Amino acid sequence: MTTTARRRLAVAASLALVATLSSPSAASAPEQSPPAARFAAFDRQVLAISVDGLDVRALRRTGPDGAPNLHRLLRQGASTRNARSQVEMTVTLPNHTSMLTGRRIDAAEGGHGVTWNRDRSRTTVQEAAGGDVASIFTRVNSGGGRTALFATESKFSLFQRSWPLSVNRSTIVQDGDRAVTDAARRDLLRHDRAFTFLHLGAPDEAGHAHGWLSPAYLRAVRKADRLIGTLLRTIKSHPRRLGDVVIVLTSDHGGGAGTTDHRDETCLCNYRVPFLIWGPGVTRGDLYALNPTYADPGRDRILFDGAQPIRNGDLANLSASLLGLGPVPGSLWGADQSLTWTR
């Protein structure tokens, strides 16, 4: 979409109410930045996708024929199959909170403090951390942009409770990968979001039920690939509206082959995740080659000292950088915004 068209939409959108506080807990949750007086025009839209439980070995098992869209993103974008999850835990909700805040997990060390992995209906990230916590949602909002969250597990309601004025739309359908993908696709066409976060949970669900890399798990990965394909086709079919979309895709953890658990944070199978950037202006190639200040970890589990690998927690500040915004306040991962997508 052209900048002029975006500005027209921004003016129109500024007259509309974009966030509805539907519950007392949401209304009372701390908010890190006030709603912007008007919506700004951005040169890009960021679509962040987390494929829950996506083990990089599944990409080899399915191959380009079984997962053509994931392989296309890896091939055409700036990508690595050797990024890292969070150091402290390889569990879903803590890692997704790190993706959205850019923080480590341990609250005593400045982390977000979300160490549980279930739906706590009245808890916020701020309560877990013991103080204010900003996010990519608040960063975009303070910069004048709108955001949306689409997820397949009820525990992701934590984020709308924590930042009720900055998550302008939150749609959660339990185990509803197709439903949330369709909702995100329609939302991209109808609304001018600066940042959209989409969570696809079927691979993780299949891994817990049948084992990672099992036939059922690989079928779930192929299903996620097909859903991502619908988004790519929508982007291609609407170049004026969506021609500036940049996709950032990663995962929260992998899983041991034949096991139904991923809690051992010392196992390569759990802490190794993919990370990719795809879209206009993105240089095709290996992310570590494009970013020599980041250290390719090989098979190692890298702690906090020394040169760091690319982590799923880099998602927040990379997204802010793609939008021309400064880093998320209080963040650790990618706070210098040196992670680049171009030469």
TrEMBL record:
From the UniProt annotation, give the residues forming the signal peptide. Answer: 1-28
Q: Does the keyword Protease apply?
A: no
User: Does the UniProt entry include the keyword Acetylation?
Assistant: no
The alphabetized UniProt keywords are: Hydrolase, Signal, Transferase
Q: Which GO terms describe its molecular function?
A: hydrolase activity; transferase activity
Protein name per its UniProtKB record: Sulfatase-like hydrolase/transferase
